[in-house]
Design goal:
Radius of gyration: 22 Å
CATH topology of the largest domain: Immunoglobulin-like
Structural class: mainly beta
Number of domains: 2
Shape: globular
CATH superfamily of the largest domain: C2 domain
Number of strands: 17
Order of helices and strands: HHEEEEEEEEEEEEEEEHEHE
CATH class of the largest domain: Mainly Beta
Distance between the termini: 39 Å
CATH architecture of the largest domain: Sandwich
Length: 342
């Protein structure tokens, strides 16, 4: 590794190694525990969801009736759950419906009807997304699982009333609620310069009581799950759809580019309390699916900015996030470069 480069400082490794022992915060200890966790395993069965779909041509709207859920897993220590369902017609995240919470049951009967205005011709590009949650009054609600329905036009009885019963799929995070971030990646091998341009975000999760957030983006240069450098964008006030167009540059020699990754977090600024993480994503050879593909495309086409939308995921789902959360912000000045979008 080229230790003469300013973004590859061996002192960073020594300081962070000292954090690995006593006194290091371990976020996993603060996660909500479920009955399955007590048994040392995660149940494969998440139950089933019964619902009815119908399309109204006169009003141009999709009618969704959530009838009931069956055999849900117990998420509370009492052996029950307090389930409710959120529903979206993707890719639109602004229109969200939610059922009432049903207390202490694994077989809730909802019988609630929701309407989504949409043209029939658009249904082929839409997906219906159900997220089943366990309500918790004092902590983060526990995601039980999800059901996704696409290819509406292929359903046997649709657009007439169509009754469906689908298995609830186990998932670790509900990306729908967190929003998406668009950024571009560009690498110049001759200059050893890696540029990530934070373009904009959309449909971010509301973190304030006003129903909005004050988002900024924090980018960390990572190597072996250790943070080498960190930069951040400006903060955009009172919005869930911020536009940044800000570029962040890291010096990364060609011989090191395969060893590093970028951990990107969208944060909500709080003037009084602690800044909160809205959601995160990661790009690099060790990243998952889209993050790895985006990185590979950047390396395949050097000197060309490659822009992609990335869904934000829960902070707990990213390897190395404990380092990301625990390390203090450097006091040195952060340099950002405005990108001309015209």
């Amino acid at each position: 590794m080229n230790l003469s480069n300013p973004d590859f400082n061996p002192g960073q490794f020594q300081r962070q190694e000292s954090l690995s022992g006593l006194g290091r915060i371990k976020p996993e200890l603060y996660k909500q525990r479920s009955v399955d966790a007590e048994e040392g395993r995660r149940s494969d069965s998440c139950g089933r969801l019964n619902f009815i779909l119908k399309f109204d041509f006169d009003l141009e709207q999709l009618i969704v009736k959530i009838h009931k859920a069956q055999d849900l897993p117990a998420k509370d220590f009492s052996g029950t759950s307090d389930p409710y369902v959120k529903i979206y017609l993707l890719p639109d995240r602004k229109t969200k419906h939610q059922t009432k919470v049903h207390r202490k049951t694994l077989n809730p009967v909802f019988d609630e009807v929701f309407l989504f205005p949409v043209a029939y011709t658009e249904l082929s590009s839409r997906k219906l997304h159900f997220s089943i949650y366990d309500f918790d009054r004092f902590s983060r609600h526990d995601l039980i699982g999800q059901v996704v329905v696409d290819n509406f036009l292929d359903l046997a009885d649709f657009p007439r009333e169509t009754k469906l019963c689908q298995d609830i799929q186990s998932v670790t995070s509900d990306n729908v609620d967190l929003g998406e971030l668009m950024f571009s990646l560009c690498y110049l091998p001759t200059a050893g310069r890696l540029t990530i341009t934070i373009i904009k975000a959309r449909n971010l999760k509301a973190m304030d009581i006003t129903g909005a957030s004050d988002p900024y983006v924090k980018v960390s240069l990572m190597c072996d799950n250790r943070r080498l450098k960190k930069r951040k964008t400006s903060t955009k006030r009172n919005t869930l759809n911020p536009v940044y167009n800000e570029a962040i540059v890291f010096d990364v020699p060609p011989e090191n580019i395969e060893q590093i990754s970028l951990l990107i977090a969208v944060m909500d600024y709080d003037r009084v309390g602690h800044n909160e993480v809205i959601g995160v994503c990661r790009v690099g050879n060790e990243a998952e699916s889209l993050g790895r593909d985006h990185w590979s495309e950047m390396l395949t086409y050097p000197r060309k900015p490659i822009a992609r939308w990335h869904p934000l995921i829960e902070v707990w789902d990213v390897v190395g996030i404990d380092t990301f959360l625990c390390c203090p912000m450097p006091k040195k000045t952060v340099f950002l470069f405005l990108v001309n979008t015209h």
